[in-house]
């Protein structure tokens, strides 16, 4: 996946990871990734990512991911993640 990112997707690791600690800054960063589509809501994107992660990770892994997040950003993660049927 990393090789694909470098060679096929044009990904550059400079400046990553981004270190937002505040909810507003984090959501602004997410929103900027969708600047070509003004109809995208950053908080909805975050919820969709959480749903996807929960569908592919165990409950323990989800808790480990959440525990690494700063408090304000952790609060974006829904208390109850509904199970997706993929």
Please describe the topology of this protein:
Layout: H1 2-7, H2 23-32, H3 42-56, H4 59-68, H5 71-74
List keywords for this structure.
5 helices; single chain; globular; 86 residues; mainly alpha
Provide a descriptive summary of the structure in words.
The protein has one domain. 52% of the residues lie in helices and 0% in strands. It contains 5 helices and no strands. Helix 2 crosses helix 3. It starts with a helix and ends in a 12-residue tail after the last helix. The model has no long low-confidence stretch (mean pLDDT 78).
Sum this structure up briefly:
The protein is mainly α and 86 residues long. 52% of the residues lie in helices and 0% in strands.
- Mean pLDDT figure: 78
| Alpha carbon gyration radius | 14 Å
Element order: H for helix, E for strand: HHHHH
Number of domains: 1
Distance between the termini: 21 Å
Query: How large is the share of residues in beta strands?
Result: under 5%
Q: Percent helix among the residues?
A: 40-55%
| Uncertain runs | none
Spatial shape: globular
User: Total strand count, please?
Assistant: 0
Give a short account of the largest sheet.
Answer: none
């Amino acid at each position: 996946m990393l090789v694909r990112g470098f060679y096929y997707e044009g990904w550059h690791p400079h400046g990553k990871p981004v270190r937002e600690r505040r909810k507003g800054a984090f959501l602004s960063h997410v929103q900027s990734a969708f600047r070509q589509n003004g109809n995208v809501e950053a908080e909805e994107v975050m919820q969709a990512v959480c749903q996807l992660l929960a569908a592919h990770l165990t409950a323990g892994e989800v808790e480990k991911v959440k525990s690494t997040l700063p408090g304000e950003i952790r609060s974006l993660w829904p208390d109850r993640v509904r199970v997706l049927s993929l």
